Amino acid sequence: MSNSDTNNILQLPNPAHIQADSMLARRFGRETVNYFGGSPLNRLSFLRTDHAFLSAAVKHPSARFVLLKDLSPLIKGPNSLYHAEYKDVQKLVPPTIFDKSEEDMLKEFDSRITKPELIFLGVDESAAASVQTGEELLQWTIYKGRPYFALDVSEKGTDEQKAEAKSVVEELAARGITPFTTRQHLLQPPTDGAIYAQARAYMDWNSRNKFCGTCGHRTLSINAGTKRACPPTDQALAAEGKSPEKGPCPTRTTISNLSFPRTDPTIIVATLSADGKRLLLGRSKRFPPNWYSTLAGFIEPGESVEDAVRREVWEEAGVTLSRVVIHSTQPWPYPANLMIGAIAQVSDPAHEVINLEHDPELEDAKWFSIAEVEEALKNGAGMLGEPPSKEYVEGNLRLPPVTAIANQLIQAAINQEYVGDKLAKM
Ligand SMILES: [Zn+2]
């Protein structure tokens, strides 16, 4: 598929405020919702401890399951996430799975017992608009819609569990549903992209936190896969003739976020020159020839977003920034990032001198003219390494696709309506 083909089918989510007029919308314009954001699911986070709700939701005929095999989503076509039904996954999800309260699960914890990871993602309340005739949606108190879960179908756990996961995957493969192992997940419709991002981030976190980060014992998945607890007792110890009491662990007695999923904030920035006529872009060593993007880096502890933007641009390119404005954000589930997108500008041409000697992270950084950037957005944007469109002229700049926040920041930075010099016109 050529880059112009993929750019045509790439779509962004709609802003949640799309129908609403407000003072803020008039002042700041339409919200940019980046790909992987704008989920259709109401997470109903306060119901994650309600085992009666979870038990009803998981077996409900309208429930759907996003399946991940070694973190790759199962799809039924190149761009189509498979929404499995309960009958597809029954071997891995017994109907009794949420029958016990969390209190009982913690009391009866036995570290010898493994289970496939099952995560409650939320309820799609918009499903009412597309529901098939005769299909009932889940109604729970005032909430109505299609419940969504993520399920791990990797071959893990006991030999029996591995065989069950294998047979679920094989049965689906016979129907043309297979794991999507490339990184090109940005091609799915935006609603599927957002559901997948949530599923992948939680699944990855669960798989990395099987053991308590404080005392080293096995943890138990609670809150429907969104928290891991270090239970006070373990029946595996009792089976060895020992006391089931595990001894103290600070995660049980103090307020601690050790067992909650993490999100790592990262800055990403499109930088304008002092005269607003050029854009600073950089390339890493792993980029194919002609590819450049906006600069990015992790926010460090005790650092504001704006300070992190200034530090990264100075460390990687030697350029000193003036004003920094936050533009939009993008969840990035590889594995747990939140990209905080900014637009920044240099105030003095003397601060534009590029110096790659501080931190040798970038292979190159360069100022590109607005015309070069406009041409690249039109004919050179695409997935990293993808062949260009027919209109692309060899040697010209290549940029990330519209589903990457880098592309949205570049578009905004060269948009006169967005960065227009209002004070100068007064
Ligand atoms: Zn512990």
UniProtKB/TrEMBL annotation:
<dbReference type="Pfam" id="PF09297">
    <property type="entry name" value="Zn_ribbon_NUD"/>
</dbReference>
<dbReference type="GO" id="GO:0006742">
    <property type="term" value="P:NADP+ catabolic process"/>
</dbReference>
<dbReference type="InterPro" id="IPR050241">
    <property type="entry name" value="NAD-cap_RNA_hydrolase_NudC"/>
</dbReference>
<dbReference type="InterPro" id="IPR049734">
    <property type="entry name" value="NudC-like_C"/>
</dbReference>
<dbReference type="InterPro" id="IPR015797">
    <property type="entry name" value="NUDIX_hydrolase-like_dom_sf"/>
</dbReference>
<dbReference type="InterPro" id="IPR000086">
    <property type="entry name" value="NUDIX_hydrolase_dom"/>
</dbReference>
<protein>
    <recommendedName>
        <fullName>NAD(+) diphosphatase</fullName>
        <ecNumber>3.6.1.22</ecNumber>
    </recommendedName>
</protein>
<dbReference type="GO" id="GO:0005777">
    <property type="term" value="C:peroxisome"/>
</dbReference>
<dbReference type="Pfam" id="PF09296">
    <property type="entry name" value="NUDIX-like"/>
</dbReference>
<keyword id="KW-0479">Metal-binding</keyword>
<dbReference type="Pfam" id="PF00293">
    <property type="entry name" value="NUDIX"/>
</dbReference>
<feature type="domain" description="Nudix hydrolase">
    <location>
        <begin position="261"/>
        <end position="390"/>
    </location>
</feature>
<keyword id="KW-0378">Hydrolase</keyword>
<keyword id="KW-0520">NAD</keyword>
<dbReference type="InterPro" id="IPR020084">
    <property type="entry name" value="NUDIX_hydrolase_CS"/>
</dbReference>
<dbReference type="GO" id="GO:0005829">
    <property type="term" value="C:cytosol"/>
</dbReference>
<dbReference type="InterPro" id="IPR015375">
    <property type="entry name" value="NADH_PPase-like_N"/>
</dbReference>
<comment type="similarity">
    <text>Belongs to the Nudix hydrolase family. NudC subfamily.</text>
</comment>
<keyword id="KW-0460">Magnesium</keyword>
<dbReference type="GO" id="GO:0046872">
    <property type="term" value="F:metal ion binding"/>
</dbReference>
<dbReference type="InterPro" id="IPR015376">
    <property type="entry name" value="Znr_NADH_PPase"/>
</dbReference>
<dbReference type="GO" id="GO:0035529">
    <property type="term" value="F:NADH pyrophosphatase activity"/>
</dbReference>
<dbReference type="GO" id="GO:0019677">
    <property type="term" value="P:NAD+ catabolic process"/>
</dbReference>
